[in-house]
TrEMBL record:
Coiled coil: none annotated. Belongs to the TatA/E family. Forms a complex with TatC. It is found in: Cell membrane. HAMAP family: TatA_E. It comes from Neobacillus rhizosphaerae. PANTHER family: SEC-INDEPENDENT PROTEIN TRANSLOCASE PROTEIN TATA. InterPro entries: TatA/B/E, TatA/E. This is Sec-independent protein translocase protein TatA. Part of the twin-arginine translocation (Tat) system that transports large folded proteins containing a characteristic twin-arginine motif in their signal peptide across membranes. TatA could form the protein-conducting channel of the Tat system. Keywords: Cell membrane, Membrane, Protein transport, Translocation, Transmembrane, Transmembrane helix, Transport. The gene is tatAd_7. The chain crosses the membrane at residues 6-22. It is a single-pass membrane protein.
């Protein structure tokens, strides 16, 4: 979906974000998005590790 935007579309989105949120709020917004992505990756990795452990336990039982 995002691959269809292209450079001009990305520039338009960034300019609109700058206009809507202003130069003072934009770094805070970016930081919040970054922290959210970091937490999402951490949670996803935790789920994948649990799934892997469960599969290894099933193999040991067999």
């Amino acid at each position: 979906m995002l691959s269809n935007i292209g450079i001009p579309g990305l520039i338009i989105v960034l300019v609109l974000a700058l206009i809507i949120f202003g130069p003072k709020k934009l770094p805070e917004l970016g930081r919040a998005v970054g922290q959210s992505l970091k937490e999402f990756k951490k949670s996803t990795k935790g789920l994948m590790d649990e799934e892997k452990e469960n599969e290894e336990e099933k193999v040991k039982v067999l």
